[in-house]
Design a protein that fits this description.
Number of strands: 0
Distance between the termini: 9 Å
Largest sheet: none
Number of domains: 2
Order of helices and strands: HHHHHHHHHHHHH
CATH superfamily of the largest domain: MetI-like
CATH topology of the largest domain: MetI-like fold
CATH architecture of the largest domain: Orthogonal Bundle
CATH class of the largest domain: Mainly Alpha
Structural class: mainly alpha
Radius of gyration: 24 Å
Helix content: over 70%
Shape: globular
C-alpha cells in the first residue's frame, strides 16, 4: 500500500508540473498586452516599456516560468498586476463562497442520485423505473444555465422563497442569509450533476444484480431486492466513490458558470474577470490551484478505493 501511495503521489506531482507548463504557455498566447492595459490608452511607449520591465514581462519565457515556480515553492502564487493583491489572499477570500457551494452541490447530487439510481435499477422494466431512467437522461442533457434560470423563475420569481442573485455583504457573519444565497446555485449544479451520477448508479446496480454472490444470496432464500441490498450495494458503493472524483471536476466547471449567473463572488467569477483583464499571475495561480484540487481529489479517491476494496490490494 505504501509503495502504491508513493507511486500515485509521484504521478500527482508530475501531473501538477505538466499542468503548470500548459497553463503558463497557454496564457502567453492570448492576445493583448498587459503592460499596455495597465498604462491605459494614453500610455506612451516609454511607459509601456517601463511597466514591462518592472513586471518582468521582458524576460524570456523560461525565466518567467522558473520565477513563477520558484515563488510557488515559497508559498507565493503571485501578485495581481492590476490590484497588487496576492493570489493566495484573493483565493482564500473567494473560496469562502466557492467551497461551500461545491460541498452543497455534491451533497445534493449524492442525496438524490444514489437512492433514485438504485430504485430505478430495482424497478427496471416497470413504469416508475422507466420514468426515473428517462427523467435522469433528460435532466442530464439540460444545460446548467437553463436549469439555473428555471429554478430562479420558480423559486425566486413565482414563489419568492429564495434570492435570485447576489451574496450578502456580511458574508458568513450572517449564516442564514449566506446559506439562502447558495441554495439555488447549489440546487442547479447538484441536480444536473446528480442526474449524471444517477445514470451511473443505475448501471452499476444492474451490473451488481448479475454478480455470483448476489445470485447466491437469492438462491439461499433472500428476495432479489434483499440480496441486492445485502450483497450488491457494497460493490455499487465502490463504483460511486470512483465516479465522485469525476463529479468534483464537473462541479468546478459548473461553479464557473453558475457564479456568473447568480453573481456570486467566488473563484469562478474571479477567474472569468481576471481572464478578461489579462491579469496573468492571478489567472495562472487560480488555474493551478483548481487543477491541483482536482488531481488531489483523484489521488484521495484512488487511495480510498484501494483501502476498502480487497481485490485491488490482492492484485499487487
Amino acid at each position: 500500500m505504501i509503495r502504491y501511495a508513493l507511486t500515485r503521489l509521484a504521478l500527482l506531482l508530475l501531473g501538477l508540473i505538466v499542468a503548470s507548463v500548459l497553463i503558463f504557455l497557454t496564457l502567453r498566447v492570448l492576445p493583448g498586452d498587459v503592460a499596455q492595459l495597465i498604462a491605459g490608452v494614453n500610455g506612451t511607449p516609454e511607459q509601456v516599456s517601463a511597466i514591462r520591465e518592472r513586471l518582468g514581462l521582458n524576460q524570456s519565457l523560461p525565466a518567467q516560468y522558473l520565477d513563477w515556480i520558484g515563488g510557488i515553492f515559497r508559498g507565493d502564487l503571485g501578485t495581481s498586476l492590476l490590484t497588487g493583491s496576492t493570489v493566495v489572499s484573493e483565493l482564500a477570500e473567494k473560496a469562502r463562497v466557492t467551497v461551500p457551494l461545491g460541498v452543497m452541490s455534491l451533497f445534493i447530487a449524492v442525496l438524490f442520485a444514489v437512492p433514485l439510481g438504485v430504485l430505478s435499477a430495482m424497478r427496471r422494466g416497470r413504469g416508475d423505473g422507466t420514468a426515473l431512467s428517462v427523467g435522469a437522461q433528460t435532466v442530464a442533457a439540460v444545460p446548467v444555465v437553463w436549469a439555473g434560470m428555471m429554478l430562479v423563475v420558480v423559486f425566486a420569481v413565482w414563489l419568492g422563497w429564495l434570492p435570485a442573485q447576489g451574496f450578502p455583504r456580511a458574508g458568513w457573519q450572517d449564516p442564514w442569509a449566506a446559506l439562502r444565497a447558495l441554495i439555488l446555485p447549489a440546487l442547479t449544479i447538484g441536480i444536473v450533476e446528480g442526474a449524471m451520477l444517477m445514470r451511473f448508479v443505475r448501471s452499476a446496480t444492474l451490473e451488481a444484480v448479475g454478480q455470483d454472490h448476489v445470485r447466491t444470496g437469492a438462491a439461499k432464500g433472500l428476495t432479489r431486492n434483499a440480496a441486492l441490498v445485502r450483497h450488491g450495494l457494497p460493490d455499487v458503493g465502490l463504483s460511486v466513490i470512483t465516479v465522485l472524483g469525476l463529479q468534483v471536476a464537473g462541479i468546478i466547471v459548473g461553479a464557473v458558470v453558475i457564479e456568473q449567473l447568480f453573481t456570486l463572488p467566488g473563484i469562478g467569477r474571479m477567474l472569468v474577470a481576471d481572464v478578461s483583464t489579462r491579469d496573468l499571475p492571478m489567472v495562472q495561480g487560480e488555474l493551478l490551484v483548481l487543477t491541483g484540487f482536482v488531481l488531489i481529489i483523484g489521488f484521495v479517491v484512488d487511495l480510498v478505493h484501494r483501502l476498502i476494496d480487497p481485490r485491488q490490494r490482492e492484485a499487487t
